[in-house]
Specification:
The protein has about 625 residues and is an alpha+beta fold. It has three domains: about 30-225 and about 605-620, tricorn interacting facor f3 domain (Immunoglobulin-like, Sandwich), CATH 2.60.40; about 240-310 and about 570-590; about 330-560, no CATH class. The protein is about 40% helix and about 20% strand. Strand 19 (about 495) and strand 20 form a beta hairpin. Helix 6 (about 330-340) runs antiparallel to helix 7, helix 7 (about 345-355) crosses helix 15 and helix 11 (about 445-465) packs antiparallel against helix 12. It is elongated and about 115 Å long.
Length: about 625
């Protein structure tokens, strides 16, 4: 068995060899140096929408030791035929023509024994016919369009400027006045042997595109290439690879957001497969970019709409058992978690419940700021176990029950003295409550249990609304306050015969469920103020409105995503696919055991009417 240390040494040695090889190739590429005094491209338009290209390029070899042995020439598109290409240097025929390793699309012509040595000039010529380069003009229905740029070379190999000519020979029978240029004006527009000819001349380095275009009547054309607007846009993307790449990156980011929002951060293996397939499609079919964008945007909107409409947003996966019976004995916050009510309502139920028990006191009501009551404080105790024990004693003395999940809320509030409730991050305690609620209902019939607690809420509301006597009404609301708050519209319940409900922690009747109550007095805005904010009397005067405002403020304090719970946060849970994929890979793992020369330049930029570019070429 080969040791890991030996493998690492072998890998390091291989890396060194590869690096050295790349450096040698790079050094060889850097040896090329040449001037191009003239570059002429003649384009002969054919009736079948093809064009015959004739290059004539003069090379002066300026390199110290490197002959020009290979010349790369860019092609307008990949639909060219090597058998239909002929090349010469100094009138010597060249027969070794291959697909270029550096220019895509393009060809490389090997000069062989006719290579251009140091200090020599070589005149290189190439002739070929390229199909489908004359397009339907998008500005005039009866016009054709041709755009083209001569091949160009990597700037690091070129010395000086070049006299560049592009000459387009059009079909006979056209008037010179009918022939129009695109973007770059003609240098010449003449008849030559009864054929209209247009030409452009530039004096610049042949290190970038020199894009020119011509529009002319279709008389004499047997056909032109017709593109739909979508195909034209795809063609534009092909000619602008930077924009194409940017759109692909944006689409992949959007796809990732939609997928993981849809799956609730599950199904990573499925995502990888789909993402690779989409990436391949976008890279090979530019038209797919324009199809994917509206589809993904529509999918994003639909996904967000359904996520906002559905109720299951934060509860962990529940073990649902048909016929498992109803889980009774849940507290109001636990039942609210099971019914997946808004998190701000759930937090309000917990805070109000602790205020009602006397475990919390209200230091300020607007915004709501609470403090742990003296007998329930545990920061001075060393361990959580000791804190919980002392709080249970305090609760027993007050005649109330302190539930397991409430200890975490008290610990957090005690650690944030004087902080308004909506400024405290209750994500940790809330996460424990949700897990606790899910564990309690596991093994029961979830649907029947949910309906059972919906009936409890409806019964609590109905009971309070049907009581006539004010003292009995107040006692009923005291007892069922949390269940009443779970109703969709609890506000009417807290007003009875002109009196507003006064919560037990405002009335100052002591703590605990067994505290005595008295008949409420008519609501008045009196009472001691706290910190210049809303007074206890104000809260009592409009408990329903104050509760609604408090709930609204708490809506921003917790989001489902912050809970980071496993469960149906998306529309579909794909975690099963991840497990299956993991098992497959685990099973598989257990069962298995240049020619010297410079790089060529390039890119092709095409604008305006439907067009064709002779893209980047290069020299060696």
């Amino acid at each position: 068995m080969i040791s890991g240390k030996l493998l690492r040494r072998a890998a390091l040695f291989l890396l060194i060899l590869i690096t050295a090889a790349l450096q040698v190739q790079s050094v060889g590429a850097q040896n090329y140096r040449f001037a191009i005094p003239t570059l002429r491209l003649q384009v002969f338009v054919q009736p079948d929408a093809s064009v015959r290209l004739l290059y004539e390029i003069a090379f002066d070899n300026l390199a110290a030791n490197q002959p020009i042995d290979i010349i790369d020439i860019g092609m307008p598109h990949g639909n060219y035929d090597l058998n239909n290409i002929r090349a010469w240097v100094n009138d010597n025929s060249l027969n070794d023509i291959r697909h270029s390793e550096y220019v895509k699309p393009g060809v490389e012509v090997h000069l062989g024994r006719h290579e251009i040595r140091r200090g020599e000039r070589g005149v290189f010529r190439l002739e070929t016919t390229i199909p489908d380069l004359v397009y339907q003009d998008t500005t005039r229905q009866d016009y054709a369009s041709l755009q083209i740029t001569p091949t160009w070379f990597d700037r690091q190999f070129i010395s000086g400027a070049s006299e560049i000519w592009v000459v387009v020979h059009l079909l006979p029978g056209l008037d010179l006045d009918e022939i129009l240029y695109q973007n770059v004006p003609f240098t010449e527009k003449i008849y030559f042997e009864e054929q209209p000819v247009v030409a452009w001349r530039a004096n610049q380095a042949a290190a970038g595109p020199f894009l020119v275009g011509v529009s002319f009547p279709q008389r004499g054309m047997e056909r032109v290439v017709t593109l739909t607007p979508l195909q034209l846009a795809a063609k534009w993307l092909e000619d602008n690879p930077t924009i194409w790449t940017g759109l692909i990156v944006g689409i992949m980011i959007l796809f990732s957001i939609i997928f993981f929002r849809f799956s609730g951060l599950t199904g990573f293996s499925v995502f990888v497969i789909l993402a690779l397939g989409l990436l391949w499609l976008l890279n090979t079919q530019p038209i797919a970019v324009f199809a994917a964008l509206p589809a993904l945007l529509a999918g994003f909107g639909a996904n967000e709409y359904h996520l906002s409409r559905r109720k299951t947003t934060y509860l962990p996966a529940l073990a649902h058992v048909e016929g498992g019976g109803i889980k009774r004995g849940l507290t109001a916050p636990e039942a609210a978690a099971l019914l997946e009510m808004p998190l701000n309502k759930l937090l309000t139920l917990i805070i109000f419940g602790l205020l009602k028990k006397g475990a919390l006191t209200a230091a300020q009501h607007e915004p709501l700021t609470v403090a742990v009551s003296h007998s329930f404080r545990g920061a001075h105790l060393g361990s959580k176990k000791e804190r919980d024990k002392e709080r249970r004693k305090a609760a027993q003395a007050a005649g109330v029950v302190l539930h397991k999940y409430e200890h975490a809320f008290l610990d957090l509030i005690e650690s944030r003295p004087n902080a308004p409730v909506h400024k405290v991050d209750f994500g940790g305690p809330m996460r424990e409550l949700l897990k606790h609620a899910a564990e309690r209902v596991g093994g029961f019939n979830i649907n029947e249990t949910k309906e059972y607690y919906r009936k409890i809420v409806r019964r609590a509301v109905t009971e309070a609304q049907t009581i006539g006597e004010l003292p009995e009404w107040e006692k009923t609301v005291d007892r069922n306050m949390e269940w009443i708050l779970m109703d969709e519209n609890p506000s009417p319940v807290f007003t009875h015969r002109g009196y507003d409900y006064r919560p037990i922690w405002v009335r100052g009747l002591g703590t605990g469920a067994g505290s005595a109550t008295t008949s409420p007095a008519p609501a008045t805005p009196g009472g001691p103020a706290y910190g210049g904010k809303t007074s206890f009397g104000d809260v009592a005067a409009s408990f329903a409105g104050w509760t609604e405002n408090t709930m609204g403020r708490l809506a921003s304090s917790i989001s489902p995503e912050s809970l980071a719970l496993p469960g149906a946060k998306g529309l579909v849970n794909l975690s099963g696919a991840d497990r299956v994929t993991g098992d497959i890979f685990k099973a598989l793992s257990e069962g298995g055991g240049s020619s010297s020369g410079g790089s060529s330049g390039g890119g092709c930029a095409c604008a305006g009417c439907a067009c064709a570019c002779a893209c980047a070429g290069g020299g060696r």
